Hints:
single chain, Phosphorylase Kinase, domain 1, Transferase(Phosphotransferase), domain 1, 2 domains, 11 helices, about 15% strand
Amino acid sequence: MALKERIAANRCPRAKIKEFDINGYIGGGGYGAVVEAEWMKKKRLCVIKIQNKSHLVESKVTESVIREKKIQYACRSAFICRVRCSCQDWKNIYLVMDYALFGDLRKNFQEKKDFFTERAIKFCVAQVVLALEYLHASDILHRDLKLENILVFEDGYIKLSDFGSAKQVPGTTATFVGTVHYLPPEVIHQIPYRTGFDIWTLGVLIYVLFHRDFPFTEVSWSNARNFDAIQSGTLTFPGKRPMSEDAIDLTKQLLEREVSKRIGVARGGIKAIKRHPWFADINFIHIFRKEVPSDFGFKHVEAREMDPSILIPEVKMRDPFRDEFIEF
């Protein structure tokens, strides 16, 4: 069954949250919380993304989280974090996913005092390229590629996660989504877009991995100022963190404001990125087969102790949002 057909079939298994023993808290944000758990039936570790139904309904993102579950379960790529099953009760929805031993790239990036080597960056980016190639082949846009959404697993390889902004787009869309510092100019201008969105964010990701900073924007700036910088700011490459000429060239081509000239969007698509000289020493087939050793020296994620009842209700009640989440 093809990816598009698996998404439409919506056959993600459903489980009960009582089948899981919560070990501790990993992290959270505006979407909810992520916990480490043991799937007792399967005797395996997993992570569970917990989202409050009331908050999702108030934020008008119920369709997005249902779409997230459908897409992330349907994907069968070694470079995309798999949803294994879903659960829900009267209070929350739960996405059960593969356990990333080393957490996300942002955490590791913040803990690492020195910069990543160019070899390590290239190894990571090559896997992201393979993930995007898989998605774009089925007209799926991720639309939120960033350090926080790239997980590092036990084998040292990465997987793309968090498909809350993902969407299947056979034609074009003009929906304003994503993270401010990664937004491409066409989204800010509300011009219909396709895969160019993810290609631009790939360029931002490479820049961040090299420089620990965004190419155009600042965290302290207002959204309006950041939007102006994305549309007209000058792209510079600080000398304090040298990049090879090929790395600079690829980053410039990915951060091309004119979509039709952006590498990966114009003729050749993702394959044009894979053929760029920066990847000359990368064998994508060997990476696809996971035959290239990873040299990431990351620390294991340590879940913080927590009382599960803080997030997960112990008492059954009538579900006021049953109809909204019937497809979950």
